[in-house]
Design a protein that fits this description.
elongated; 64% helix; binds zinc ion; 9 helices; mainly alpha
């Protein structure tokens, strides 16, 4: 017990010192929610990383030849992007794959898989996913994740300093516990927090652009049906919130988004097929 106290005490002290220097240079705020963020890389570095990774991924994947899907995704993306706070060089593409997924890289580089479009009913549902992915970019969630990775390493260095006079067996045991503890205690909860934030921001973005935010909830209910019976990890071991919790949160955000939608220039909610 004394050892735990001692290690923890000097660990906290070393960590405090190391992060102090980082904190001075790195405070920003997420758009829409106004959440304070710690981001240790510049936005232009982040955008460059996003662009390089995007070109790499797309060159190794097959782009979709489904013209209905491609034009719907590009139309919705280009419709929503001007309603955000960022003036990125946006990219929207569809990849030929049955995966039910979509993703976004820093700087607004977005891809949908055909599989997620297969389960959607209309462009309002594309707008729901698009708003969510766009929000990951404008809120700089990629930069935040990279920063959390840096801090995890800083923590490991601080731990090394704190433990330097201890028995090697104790050092080993503490390091063995460090990564899972940081994952379960910090990285995974943080990732889920970003997901909720992207959900809320995405609803605001789609509503500003004239898409009915109710479609976000409709889509997650379809997702729930599609994944029925499939095994999934408990929420505390997952990067994403469980779908039921997501729907609950979206229902809470809905009134705020509906107000925005009612003042918008409404887009027709075209069927995809
Ligand atoms: Zn997400």
């Amino acid at each position: 017990m004394r050892l735990v106290k001692k290690v923890f005490g000097s660990f906290k002290y070393s960590l405090l010192l190391l992060t102090f220097f980082l904190l001075i240079v790195a405070c920003s705020k997420a758009p829409v929610t106004g959440r304070s963020q710690l981001i240790l890389i510049s936005e232009s570095q982040e955008i460059q990383l996003g662009l390089t990774a995007y070109d790499q991924v797309l060159s190794s994947e097959k782009l979709s030849s489904n013209q209905e899907y491609v034009s719907a995704v590009k139309r919705v993306g280009n419709k929503i992007a001007p309603f955000t706070e960022k003036n990125y060089n946006w990219r929207f593409n569809v990849i030929e794959s049955s995966q039910v997924n979509a993703w976004c890289l820093p700087g607004g580089k977005i891809a949908f898989y055909e599989g997620i479009l297969d389960i959607m009913e209309n462009e309002g549902q594309i707008a729901a996913v698009m708003g969510h992915e766009i929000a990951h970019a404008t809120a700089r969630h990629g930069g935040e994740r990279i920063s959390l990775g840096i801090l995890t390493q800083v923590g490991a260095i601080a731990l090394q300093i704190a433990l330097r006079e201890e028995d090697p067996a104790i050092q080993y045991a503490v390091f063995q516990a460090y990564i899972p503890a940081v994952s379960i205690g910090a990285i995974l909860p943080f990732s889920r927090k970003q997901e909720y934030e992207a959900d809320r921001m995405g609803m605001v973005y789609m509503a500003r652009a004239g898409y009915d935010p109710q479609e976000a909830i409709n889509l997650w209910k379809i997702m729930l049906e599609v994944n029925k019976g499939k095994e999934r990890p408990p929420q505390w071991l997952s990067t994403h919130p469980i779908t039921e919790n997501r729907i609950k949160e979206l229902e809470e955000f809905l009134p705020e988004a509906l107000e925005i939608y009612n003042d918008s220039d409404k887009e027709p909610n075209r069927k995809i097929r």
